[in-house]
Amino acid sequence: MTATPTAHPDTARMAWATGLTAFAAVMLTIAGVLDIFRGIMGIAQDDVFVATRDYVFRLDLAGWGWIHLILGILAVIVGIGLFQMATWARVAGVVIAGFLILANFLSLPYYPVWSVVAIAISGFIIWALCVARPEEPLEEPPASAGATPRAL
User: Is 0.90 surpassed by the pTM of this model?
Assistant: First the structure.
C-alpha cells in the first residue's frame, strides 16, 4: 500500500503567495477605480461630500478631488503591474496604499464612512503585499536519510 503524496510545503507557500498578490492586485485596482470616481466627484464639487468647518487639514474640495484622482490612477497602474507579479509593483503597491490611507484619513470629514472603509481596504492591501513573498527561491526538499537508489 502506498501513501498518497502530499503537496510540498514550498509549493503550498508559493500558491498562498500568488493568491495574496492576486488579492492585493484586485483590491488595489478596485480601490484605484473608486478613488478615480471619488476624485471626479470632488473636482466637479458634487453634493455627495459633506462640508465641514474648522477642520485642521482643510483643502478646497477640488484639491481633494485632484489628490484622489491622481492616487486612483497610480493605484490602477500599480494594480495592473501586480497582476504581472512585478517586484516594482509590490513596492509601489505598499507605497500607494499608504498614501491612500493618508489621503482617506485627511478627508474623513468630507466622506467619513467611505474613508474608514477605504483605510481598511488599503490596510489589507499592505498586509497582503508584505506577508507574501513570491520571489523567494524555492528550497530543494530535504533528501530522506539513508535513501539510496536500488539496483534491480
Answer: no
